[in-house]
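Running co-folding for cytidine-5'-triphosphate.
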Amino acid sequence: DGELITSRLMVNGSEKIVRGGMSSFFQHSVEGWRVNPSLVLMIRKDVLRFLDAERDVSVVKSSFKPGDTIHYVLDRRRTLNVSHTLHSLLPDVSPLKNKRFRTCAVVGNSGVLLNSGCGKEIDSHDFVIRCNLAPLAEFSEDVGLRSDFTTMNPSVIQRAYGGLRNASDTERFVRRLQMLNDSVLWIPAFMVKGGERHVESVNEIIVNRKLNVRTAYPSLRLIHAVRGYWLTNKINIKRPSTGLLMYTLATRFCDEIHLYGFWPFPRDADGNVVKYHYYDMLKYRYFSSAGPHRMPLEFKTLKALHSKGALKLTTSKCV
Ligand code: CTP
C-alpha cells in the first residue's frame, strides 16, 4: 500500500494514464470506471476453455448413488462416502442453469467494508454472491442484506458455530440458514478431509428442519480448472480463495461483476488498520504466510482487471 502505481484507465471512452498512490488510484478508477464488454466476453470464453460454471458449480443427483466413494480433490488418498442425506440434497440440475445477469456483486469479507455504506449498492445488483455465511443483519448499512448465492466452507461450522455442539449454536446456525430464504448454499464438501462431520450435521439439519435452501456442492474438477485458467494467464495460485473462485464462476453468467470486501491487507491506503474480516476478530497475520491462499497476489490480479474494465473493484466508500 502507498506504492506509486501507473494505471491505464478507460475514462469516457478514452484511455488515461493515472499515476499515484493507492488512494488516488481508487478515486480515479471509481469515478472513471467503465465496463469493457469485449474484454468481458473474451474472459468468459477463455474461462470456458477450463470450466463451465453451469456444470462445475455443483455435482447433481445423477452424478452419484448413495454409498459411492469420492476421493477428496486435494487429498486423493482419502475418501468420503456419499450418504443418503448428502445424496438427497444434491440438486437435480445446476442452480446456475441458463442463468444470465446484467450485474452481479461478489462480496468478500474484508474489514474494508466497515463504514463503507455499500449496503444499498450491493443489494441493488441483479445477483449477489456472498462468502462463508458472513453475518449481515448487524452490518447491513455496509454490506447489505440480499443474498442469492452463499458459500460455506465446512471450517465455518467450527469457527463460527462452535461445531454445532450445543443447542444455542445450532439454533443460531438454523436462524442464519433461514435467512437464505430459498437461495443457494454452496458447500465445498469434497475439497479436503476434515470437515465431513460438520457437512453431515449441516445436511441433516437442512433435511430434518425442512430448511428452505438450495444446496450445491462444487464439482470435483472445479478447483483444478480454476487454477488451470489462472495459470495459463501466468498467475500461479495453488489454492484459489473463495472470492477468486466466485469471480471466476461469475464470469460465465454476469455481464458486469462488482467486487466488494476484497482487501487482504492490514492497513488501508491512508494507513488505518483494516480488520481481516468485517465481523470477527480473526487476525490477518494468521492468513498471510501460514494460510493456504495468496490473496495479495489475487488482489493484484483483480486490480489489473479492474483497470482494464473487466470487473469493478470497490475498496472505498460507496457514494
Ligand atoms: N477477502 C479479501 N480480503 C480479506 C478477507 C477476504 O480479499 N481481508 C476475500 C477473499 O477472496 C476471500 C473472500 O473475501 O476468499 C471471503 O473471505 P473469507 O470468508 O475469509 O474466505 P477464505 O479465507 O477464502 O476462506 P477459506 O480460507 O476458508 O477458503
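Result summary
The mean pLDDT is 90.
The chain is about 35% helix and 15% strand.
Job closed.
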